[in-house]
Protein 1
Amino acid sequence: MKKIFIYIVIIIIISFSISILFTKNFEKKEEEVVSPEPVERVENNFVDLLHKADGTVEHLGLEEYLYGVVSAEMPASYELEALKAQAVVARTYTKYKQEEKKHDNADICDDSTCCQAWISKENRFSRWEEAERESNWNKIVQAVNETAGKYIAYEGKPINALFHSNSAGKTELPINVWGGTYPYLQIVETSGENAYSTYASEVVISKDELIQKMLEKNSKFKINFKDDDAMRILEYNESGRVKTLKVGNTELSGVEARSIFGLKSAKFEFMIDGDEIKFQILGYGHGVGLSQSGSDSLAKQGKNFEEIITHYYKNVEITE
Ligand SMILES: [Zn+2]
């Protein structure tokens, strides 16, 4: 009898505990359902930044993060309106990446070849002359703050706000770089980019180096430099960049050649001179979207950040 009584007491205690647990869970769930909006809105003002070098993730306020992007991506000597355009582009690109979820545990990384560059204030200061540190930083903060919350939208959504250093006068279509098209990324012309150090560059490699690099690409690579057409550009695309190039028995795209030979852009010519191949390159970067030197050039011509943005991205609106 005593045993049965004890069993009954235990069963009552267990059922009571289970009912409390369920009620608690239910209450908790209901709380979560009631308040998703404020949580999401707060989270949108933060960025989880992956530092590629050591794999750590830093939780930063969005605008604070943007100071580090603008100061890493654009010279502080550029016009304020160009810096403001860069700030809006960086904010847009960040929002786009947050939705894309490219990185598992972060919104975006600090590698310019993967996402967009970022530099801490301390590192930035150490690379500026002491006399200009405060004024440079204040200019960047001003560019970000005066455009606070603004981003570029196409059909109501943040655009893939691609940008590069110098388009050498004409931007490129994304299909010629990675494939894919975006209605707002078209070929756009800008004057004045030849005034920048990023406009022209040269790469010289020896014939042996070229053979080594090509063998890494194609183990069956062969070339006879005595042939008249040992190396020849086969086709240009609409923006004037190299579309295809023949190197010995191998055909490359201009984008592949850029990567294999370490060229600053796919807009290049070359000449074979003795034991060397000399590449003359115009522009810096993939050439798609906003050109940074072009933005500065437009700002010098009196354009404001909104006019600069709508010059490079078509049929978009700047929204908050
Ligand atoms: Zn990344």
Note: The first helix runs from residue 2 to 34.
Protein 2
Amino acid sequence: METARSFSHLLKGQNPPFSLAPILNHFGIYEVRTRILYPELARIIFYGGHPIIEVNSLFSEENHRFSVGHELGHVILNEANGKDRFAISCDIKEEEEKADIIGRELVIPSWAVSFLTPRNGLQFQKASMSSLTLKNVARYFGVGAKVMRDRLVKDFGWYEIPNKK
Ligand SMILES: [Zn+2]
């Protein structure tokens, strides 16, 4: 996580949605391209000797950003575990969950979450999260609402207040 946070610091000075280009460059990832994939959301493959990330064109753009973050999560985990940077991890549930957490840190950095207060016009509070504001904040970061929710609830322990009818 420390490593992931040091990478998400590379995005400082940008406004959301953050371009992951500095991190992709760091790891020598040549290109991100969209392809129809089944069943995975994204993968890292070698093309002409260059590592590239393919994201699934069957999913929307906002899913792509998180998918790229997730794949970068695998790269960061591989390096932390002393493996080859682009070693394939074979669907180990624990690894997938860790890659998700790192992916969320990269697309929604901790330092940027710390700015999420009602003051900057996000109509968003730690103690109350309606799905409307969740959608707004998700759009602000260029991610899907589910990823945004997981980020705040799973990673930061914020809680949701059910929608009033
Ligand atoms: Zn994965």
Note: Residues 61-80 form the longest helix (20 residues).
Protein 3
Amino acid sequence: MYQAETSRYDHMLYRRAGRSGLSLPAISLGFWHNFGGSDTYETGRAVARLAFDRGVTHFDLANNYGPPYGSAEETFGQLLRDDFHPYRDELVISTKAGWDMWPGPYGDFGSKKYLIASLDQSLKRMGLDYVDIFYHHRPDPETPLEETVEAMVQMVRQGKALYLGISSYEPDETQRFIDLLGRENIHLLVHQPSYSLLDRWIEDGLDTVLEQNGVGTVVFSPLAQGLLTSRYLGGQIPTDSRAARRVFLSPDDITPDLLEQLQQLDRIARQRGQSLAQMALSWVLRDHRVTSAIIGASRPSQLEENLDALKNLHFTKDELAQIDRVLQDA
Ligand SMILES: NC(=O)c1ccc[n+]([C@@H]2O[C@H](COP(=O)([O-])OP(=O)(O)OC[C@H]3O[C@@H](n4cnc5c(N)ncnc54)[C@H](OP(=O)(O)O)[C@@H]3O)[C@@H](O)[C@H]2O)c1
């Protein structure tokens, strides 16, 4: 039987999610890849155990993570039964709906019809009575925001979600969402945007909206799906890499210019005594408004390496300037 490390809270850094009572680990584990029905259960299990043993108390899921859709939540349900059941109250589990999940007009975007049914399905797959955070996964240009908010308020009132989040909403839509929720006396806990050295869109206003409203920032793909690691630095595409699978990342994304940039960033990382992956994580976490960085890991050794980023979150002005120069030269 799995027994979690007794030292698991000794080294992790926890940050408060905006103006709330909830703290999250600076590094969280995402289930988008590596936990689906076509992945090896025991590998995912080893990653999840290692994560929890090192203080990663937050696992991030969504209805359609897999493949096939739903299977990452089923895997989490199995992990809960096998290993984590005694630790349920030490874990923050999030799920989402908003992308395509089932056929027809009621399995996508932001209607109340979709969101309510989807959360019920997610709870069944995971074997949970409630999730800690429910996210609307992406904005819906067609559904009135009032309806999406109403659905999510209902989830909280019914005790099926403790806290609420949104993902990939632009600054203006985020403010509207916060205001509508506020009318119901519910605070938006977190926003989940993409953010990495290669993707800095949140610096263009979203960061300020979140800060001003006391909303936490939980960033996804901080390693740019593996680009900001040693994976592709040698100019090859490893056969077991995400780029080789050509689903969300493709070898064509790794242009000679990008490769040159990654190699320069790697040199800066080495000067700091870090790997590229570690520096990329330290860099997103240098901003104290970033509550947590959700990473993916296809094996325990990647997670080990990534968690060690927390040993050095400090950047000198010169290092930040060097990094900016490399990024501007793109
Ligand atoms: N809200 C949203 O719309 C949204 C969208 C995307 C993701 N997310 C969330 O964010 C989580 C993380 O996303 P992500 O998987 O794209 O994050 P990521 O951390 O940027 O990329 C993870 C991938 O990079 C590679 N990798 C990680 N550490 C490595 C290391 N030390 N050395 C070499 N390779 C390494 C692995 O890929 P390989 O080994 O397979 O090459 C791993 O699966 C997701 O699981 C999900 O929970 C949310």
Note: Residues 30-34, 60, 137, 167-168, 192, 220-226, 229-231, 241-242, 277, 294-298, 302, 305-306 surround NAP (CB under 6 Å).
Protein 4
Amino acid sequence: MPRPGSSRAILEQGSYRAQTGAPRGTTALAAPGPWSSARNRPIVVGRSRRKRWAGLDASSPRALSVSARIGADLKAQIADGTCPPGSALPSTRALAAELGVSRTTVTAAYDQLIAEGYLETRPGGRTRVAAGLRPDPGPREAAAAPPQRLSAFGRRILAMPPPDDAPAPAIDFRTGDLSGEDFPALAWRRALNAALLRRPARLGYGDPRGLPELRAALQAYLWRARGLRCGLDQIVVVNGSQQGIDLCARLLVDPGDRVVMEEPGYRAARGVFSAAGAAIVPVPVDADGLRTGDLAAIGGARLAYVTPSHQFPLGGVLPAARRQALLDWAEASGATIVEDDYDGEYRFDARPVEALLGLDRTGRVIYVGTISKTLSPQLRLGYLVVPPALGAAFAEAKRLADRQAPGLEQAALARFLAEGGYERHLRQVRRRNAERRAALLAALAESFGPAVRVEGAAAGLHLVAWFPQVPAGREAAMAAAARAAGIGVYPVGPTYHEAANRPDRAGLVLGFAGSGPETIRAGIRRLAAALAAAP
Ligand SMILES: Cc1ncc(COP(=O)(O)O)c(C=O)c1O
């Protein structure tokens, strides 16, 4: 009869006991009991000096260190009651000898479990399972677990239509994607390297509004490229437009507030305001963007979200008279305007139009800019220009959201902007995207002729292809037929807030910045063939 608590006792009690079926020359050790199969893999110890461990595979998540596996098995035995609270463990020397591992390995396993509170030890005493631990009753039936109570915000976002997360098809016309070939990898690496080599003496949190040198570089860029004058304190660097819009909603919108949105409009912005509990007030757009004449009938709106330089998705550019009407309405109704200038850098028939912010004399406009359309949506960098009176609120909201945008990328962008690399890159991508746009327009004309009418191609990186003879109800079937042929196209319907506002003909939103001209041509030919063959 072995002494209680000796390694032999633990082994016989089932903690580490030989099992049959182990490879020759090894001893398989595992704990019995109602373990899950993942836990119940035997540990196999070689009898030779070279130890071998079953399941120890560097490419698998089981690639735990030996001491981690001993620890995991001990935890499992504590959980299933094999090692009850207060029971003594074998000495590290005894268990190491029994398992054929070094004593250091077992000591490391014990130390880790002591640190986690599973084991206790007293000077001169045996290591024991911590008193007061309760055996784990095992995974609870999902159905029996009480549902977590979501906040009103959580309930609102779960009630929204699910995002389209389908894997990308072979040729994808998704808006927002850029071609990987356009990314200026060498220039960006130089900028990142330079930022890395600065090696600050201390690593700490910075100004939540962003690195001062990036804000200064953005200030100069906005003046050069968009004719905008603003103070440094008005610029807040954010993680893409999306965060900028989210901060606007947090700071300016209470549940029940009315928020004017373009109809159709940008779903990701609508999602933010809906999640904040806003009452969305859709205002129709036409070929010139928001129909500002319709605003007069809207009283008490708190905020309006607009894309005046290139309406998303229909592509209209808001003319000067409508810009003035929009600003006048905002002033009269006390509303704030969020101007999303997401792709204002791309204008194919003339110079980029002036930003709405440039006309704002009363501090009502929040300007949202991004590098997602010029450098990469993966960098997650954008910026806000906020009215001076809102600077402190935005700085604090950004600090509470995530402290600050990533410093290294900010420093790289600051350098890229200040040294002229950004604008050199812009000239290149403008040219390439002009070629892609021309390829798309020619391919649509060639494959569909008068069966397609193109809207909104004068600016930006997408257009809308309307199919006047196809009823709107066919949009989803068109997208599905295209996807079956390996082509990603996106119906215009879901960009409408209210189904009743959808036009009766089908339309597809086609982004063209993600692929080269040849791929675009091939994609449109395949699209035409797939639609022609669709039932
Ligand atoms: C209307 C609009 N705003 C903003 C963005 C960019 O968002 P972000 O800067 O968060 O990447 C896009 C991207 O497609 C967009 O379509």
Note: The domain at 7-129 is CATH 1.10.10.10 (Arc Repressor Mutant, subunit A).
